[in-house]
Design a protein that fits this description.
About 25% of the residues lie in helices and about 25% in strands. It has a four-stranded antiparallel beta sheet with strand order 1-2-3-4. It has one domain. The longest helix has 10 residues. It is built from three helices and four strands, in the order βββααβα. With about 110 residues, it is α+β, with helices and mostly antiparallel strands. The mean pLDDT is about 80. This is Aspartate--tRNA ligase, cytoplasmic. Keywords: ATP-binding, Cytoplasm, Ligase, Nucleotide-binding.
């Protein structure tokens, strides 16, 4: 009711041509707008070896990096960045992102 609708889309491994071989990327969208981008380091040595080969990287040059995952020295890790103003704008179906920011910036106001 009220004309509000929203959907959340989670997309993994986008744009493989530009991503580093050692990461898995993801993006989340609300109402067709990207709200979160992030990545997780690949911590499986066999997958790292496969990705390195696909990118033409000599596996011997990253052997110590792969060993760190093999022997547990580096725990699985990743991160993301979220645009909170964009999330609020889309969640509330506002027409302008400046309505969600306490101090909006534009070419005429650089607060």
């Amino acid at each position: 009711e009220g004309g509000y609708s929203w959907s959340l889309i989670h997309r993994m491994d986008t744009n493989s041509a530009v991503r580093p071989f050692y990461t898995r990327l993801f993006d989340d969208f609300i109402r067709g707008e990207e709200i979160i981008s992030g990545a997780e380091r690949i911590d499986i040595p066999e997958m790292l070896e496969k990705r390195a080969g696909e990118c033409g990287i000599d596996v011997k040059t990253i052997e110590t990096y792969m060993d760190s995952f093999r022997y547990g020295a580096t725990p699985p890790h990743g991160g993301f960045g979220a645009g909170l103003e964009r999330v609020v704008m889309l969640f509330l179906a506002l027409d302008n992102i400046r309505k969600t920011s306490l101090f909006p910036r534009d070419p005429h106001r650089l607060a």
